[in-house]
C-alpha cells in the first residue's frame, strides 16, 4: 500500500482546506477512500454517528499536482483509511501561505498520514512543518460497509433556498428547539418549522424550483397524478442541519434536498470539483 | 403564500397591533435590556415599554415610542404581558443580525389579548417567518418612585466618555461606587477589587460633560454585577444622564439614536447596596 500526493497551487490548496473544514464540521471520525482518480470522504450511518451519513467525492486531478497510489492489491487498487478530519484541518491551517504540501502514507510506529507543509523562508532552505495524523487502515473485508448510498425513493426533491438565509434561520431556531421539521412540495415551496411549549416558528420559502430527475425508464419523472401542493415532511435533529449549513463556506453551484416523508432527508451540495451528500434520518 | 402565513387584515380587533419596516429598531433596543430571560411588555397609545428586573434592586426599561412604528394601535387603555425576551429576540433576529446596507426585516406584531400568544410576522427578501410566542401573567413591577423633583444630583455625559470605563470595570470588586459632588472630585467612579482600588474622575469642565447639576456631595455604592448589563445600553447610546435621589437610588437614562436617526430611550434604575455602613465610606 502506497500513497503520496502533492499540492503546489495555492488556489487548489485553499479549496482543499475548505473541503476538509466542511468535513470536519460534519464528522468526528470518517473514512478516506483513495482510488486512482478520486478521493472520497465517507461517514456511514452507524448509530454512533447519530444516524447521519455522508458521502463526499472529489477528483484528485482537480487538486493535486502529483498523485501516486497503490492499493492493497492489484485487483483492489484502493485504500480505505479511518481518520479524524479535524486533525487534517488543523494541519492544513498552517499551510495558508505554503509553497507546497505533501501528503504521504507512512508506517513508522503506526500508520499515519504525514502532511509536510513547505513554508516560504528568507533563507535559501525552506522551513518544513510536518504533521503526523494517525490513521486506521480498514481491511478489505470491511469495505462493503462503505458503499455509496443509493438516492432514496423520495417524495419531494427541491432546490434549497439561499444558504445564507437558511443558515441564519436554522441557527436561531436551534436556540429554541432541538428538532426541526423540514417540509417541501413539488410547487417549489419549503417550510422550516419548530414547535415547543413556549414558541412555534415557521419560515416559508417559495419559488425554489424542483429539480428534474430522470426516472429509471429514461423519461423525466412526470408530475402527473402527483399532488403538487402536498407537503412531504420529516422531523430531524436541528444540530445536524445546522452543522451541515455552518460547514458551507462557499456557495455551492447546486444545492438541493430530497425528502422521504417521515424517514430521511437527503442533501446534495455540488461545487465545481466536489460533490457532497448528507443524509439526516427523521426522528421517529 | 399559505393562508397561515398571511398577517391578519388591519380591520381585525387586536389588543395590540403594530408594524415596523426595520425590525432592528426594536431588536437592538431590546438587546440593551436583555439581562434576564423574561420581560414585561406594556403597550399604550404612546408606544411600547419593555421592562426587565433582577434581584428586586435593578430595573431596566426600553421605550419605543409609537412614532417609531409605521403603524401602532392599542385597543384598550393599556395592554400588558410577560414574555420570554430571549425567545422574542431570537424571533426578531431570525434572518440574522448583520446589517447589510439596503436589507432589513419588516415586522408585524399582533396580540389578541390576555391569554393569547404574541404573533410576529417577519419578512426579508420575500421569505416570511411566522412566530407564535406564549405570554404569561405580568408580574408586579418595582416602583422606584424616582421623579425629577426628588433628584439631588444630575449630570449628562457623552457616552463615549464612559464606554471604555464601563467595559473595563474591575469585576472582582463587589460594588461600583459613584461619587457626585459640587466640589472635587465632581464625578468619580470607584471599584475595590482583588488587585486594589481604582478611581476614575471626570472634571466638571470636561468636554464630555454636557450638563452638571450637583447640589450635594453623595457617595453611593451599587452591586457591580447588577450594573454591568447597562454597558450594552451605554454602547448603543450617544448621551447618558446620571441622577441620584436622597436615598441614593440611581437612575441612568440613555439616549439612543437608531439607524434612521430617531431617538429612543433606555433607562436603568438601581438601589444602593445596603450592606455597607456610613462608617465604611
UniProtKB/TrEMBL annotation, chain A:
GO terms for cellular component: checkpoint clamp complex; cytosol; nucleolus; site of double-strand break. The keyword Lyase does not apply. The keyword Membrane does not apply. It comes from the Eukaryota. Its main location: cytoplasm. GO terms for biological process: double-strand break repair via homologous recombination; meiotic DNA integrity checkpoint signaling; mitotic DNA replication checkpoint signaling; mitotic intra-S DNA damage checkpoint signaling; nucleotide-excision repair; response to radiation; telomere maintenance. It is found in: Cytoplasm, Cytosol; Nucleus. Keywords: Cytoplasm, DNA damage, Nucleus. It holds the Pfam family Hus1. Component of the toroidal 9-1-1 (RAD9-RAD1-HUS1) complex, composed of RAD9A, RAD1 and HUS1. The 9-1-1 complex associates with LIG1, POLB, FEN1, RAD17, HDAC1, RPA1 and RPA2. The 9-1-1 complex associates with the RAD17-RFC complex. HUS1 interacts with POLB, HDAC1, FEN1, PCNA and RAD9B. HUS1 does not interact with RAD17. Interacts with DNAJC7. PANTHER family: CHECKPOINT PROTEIN, MITOTIC AND DNA DAMAGE CHECKPOINT PROTEIN HUS1. Belongs to the HUS1 family. Component of the 9-1-1 cell-cycle checkpoint response complex that plays a major role in DNA repair. The 9-1-1 complex is recruited to DNA lesion upon damage by the RAD17-replication factor C (RFC) clamp loader complex. Acts then as a sliding clamp platform on DNA for several proteins involved in long-patch base excision repair (LP-BER). This is Checkpoint protein HUS1. The lineage of its organism: Eukaryota, Metazoa, Chordata, Craniata, Vertebrata.
UniProtKB/TrEMBL annotation, chain B:
It is found in: Nucleus. It holds the Pfam family Rad1. The keyword Repressor does not apply. Its main location: nucleus. InterPro entries: Cell_cycle_checkpoint_Rad1 (IPR003011), DNA_clamp_sf (IPR046938), Rad1_Rec1_Rad17 (IPR003021). Keywords: DNA damage, DNA repair, Nucleus. One of its GO terms (biological process) is DNA damage checkpoint signaling. The keyword Manganese does not apply. GO terms for cellular component: checkpoint clamp complex. SUPFAM superfamilies: DNA clamp. Belongs to the rad1 family. Component of the toroidal 9-1-1 (RAD9-RAD1-HUS1) complex, composed of RAD9A, RAD1 and HUS1. The 9-1-1 complex associates with LIG1, POLB, FEN1, RAD17, HDAC1, RPA1 and RPA2. The 9-1-1 complex associates with the RAD17-RFC complex. RAD1 interacts with POLB, FEN1, HUS1, HUS1B, RAD9A and RAD9B. Interacts with DNAJC7. Interacts with RHNO1; interaction is direct. Component of the 9-1-1 cell-cycle checkpoint response complex that plays a major role in DNA repair. The 9-1-1 complex is recruited to DNA lesion upon damage by the RAD17-replication factor C (RFC) clamp loader complex. Acts then as a sliding clamp platform on DNA for several proteins involved in long-patch base excision repair (LP-BER). This is Cell cycle checkpoint protein RAD1.
Amino acid at each position: 500500500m502506497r500513497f503520496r500526493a502533492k499540492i503546489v497551487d495555492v488556489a487548489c490548496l485553499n479549496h482543499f482546506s475548505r473541503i476538509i473544514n466542511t468535513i470536519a464540521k460534519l464528522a468526528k471520525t470518517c473514512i478516506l477512500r483513495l482510488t486512482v482518480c478520486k478521493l472520497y470522504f465517507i461517514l456511514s450511518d452507524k448509530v454512533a454517528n447519530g444516524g447521519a451519513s455522508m458521502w463526499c467525492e472529489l477528483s484528485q486531478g482537480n487538486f493535486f499536482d502529483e498523485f501516486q497510489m497503490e492499493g492493497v492489491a492489484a485487483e483492489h487498487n484502493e485504500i480505505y483509511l479511518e481518520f479524524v478530519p479535524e486533525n487534517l484541518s488543523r494541519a492544513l491551517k498552517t499551510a495558508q501561505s505554503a509553497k507546497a504540501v505533501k501528503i504521504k502514507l507512512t508506517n513508522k510506529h503506526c500508520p499515519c498520514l504525514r502532511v509536510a507543509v513547505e513554508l516560504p523562508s528568507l533563507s535559501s532552505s525552506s522551513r518544513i512543518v510536518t504533521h503526523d495524523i494517525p490513521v486506521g487502515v480498514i481491511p478489505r473485508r470491511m469495505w462493503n460497509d462503505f458503499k455509496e448510498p443509493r438516492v432514496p425513493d423520495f417524495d419531494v426533491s427541491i432546490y434549497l433556498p439561499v444558504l445564507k438565509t437558511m443558515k441564519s434561520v436554522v441557527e436561531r431556531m436551534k436556540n429554541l428547539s432541538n428538532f426541526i421539521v423540514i417540509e417541501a412540495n413539488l410547487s417549489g415551496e419549503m417550510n422550516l418549522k419548530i414547535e415547543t411549549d413556549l414558541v412555534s416558528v415557521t419560515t416559508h420559502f417559495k419559488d425554489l424550483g424542483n429539480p428534474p430527475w430522470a426516472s429509471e425508464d429514461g423519461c423525466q419523472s412526470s408530475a402527473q397524478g402527483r399532488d403538487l401542493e402536498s407537503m412531504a415532511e420529516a422531523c430531524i435533529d436541528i444540530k445536524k442541519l445546522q452543522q451541515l449549513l455552518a460547514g458551507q463556506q462557499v456557495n455551492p453551484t447546486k444545492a438541493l434536498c430530497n425528502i422521504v416523508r417521515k424517514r430521511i432527508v437527503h442533501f446534495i451540495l455540488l461545487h465545481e470539483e466536489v460533490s457532497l451528500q448528507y443524509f439526516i434520518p427523521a426522528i421517529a | 403564500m399559505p393562508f397561515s402565513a398571511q398577517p391578519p387584515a388591519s380591520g381585525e380587533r387586536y389588543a395590540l397591533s403594530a408594524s415596523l419596516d426595520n425590525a432592528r429598531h426594536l431588536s437592538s433596543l431590546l438587546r440593551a435590556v436583555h439581562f434576564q430571560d423574561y420581560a414585561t411588555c406594556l403597550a399604550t397609545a404612546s408606544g411600547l415599554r419593555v421592562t426587565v428586573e433582577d434581584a428586586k434592586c435593578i430595573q431596566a426599561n426600553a421605550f419605543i415610542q409609537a412614532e417609531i412604528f409605521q403603524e401602532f394601535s392599542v385597543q384598550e387603555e393599556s395592554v400588558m404581558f410577560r414574555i420570554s425576551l430571549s425567545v422574542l429576540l431570537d424571533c426578531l433576529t431570525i434572518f440574522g443580525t448583520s446589517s447589510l446596507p439596503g436589507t432589513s426585516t419588516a415586522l408585524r406584531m399582533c396580540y389578541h389579548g390576555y391569554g393569547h400568544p404574541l404573533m410576529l410576522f417577519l419578512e426579508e427578501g420575500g421569505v416570511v417567518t411566522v412566530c407564535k410566542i406564549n405570554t404569561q401573567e405580568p408580574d408586579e413591577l418595582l416602583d422606584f418612585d424616582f421623579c425629577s423633583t426628588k433628584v439631588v444630583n444630575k449630570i449628562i455625559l457623552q457616552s463615549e466618555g464612559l464606554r471604555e470605563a464601563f467595559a473595563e470595570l474591575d469585576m472582582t470588586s463587589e460594588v461600583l461606587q459613584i461619587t457626585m459632588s459640587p466640589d472635587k472630585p465632581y464625578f468619580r467612579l470607584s471599584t475595590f477589587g482583588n488587585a486594589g482600588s481604582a478611581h476614575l474622575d471626570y472634571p466638571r469642565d470636561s468636554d464630555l460633560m454636557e450638563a452638571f447639576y450637583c447640589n450635594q456631595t453623595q457617595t453611593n455604592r451599587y452591586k457591580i454585577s447588577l450594573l454591568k448589563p447597562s454597558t450594552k445600553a451605554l454602547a448603543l447610546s450617544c448621551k447618558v444622564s446620571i441622577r441620584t435621589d436622597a436615598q441614593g437610588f440611581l437612575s441612568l437614562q440613555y439616549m439612543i439614536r437608531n439607524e434612521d436617526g430617531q431617538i429612543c430611550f433606555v433607562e436603568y434604575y438601581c438601589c444602593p447596596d445596603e450592606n455597607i455602613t456610613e462608617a465604611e465610606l
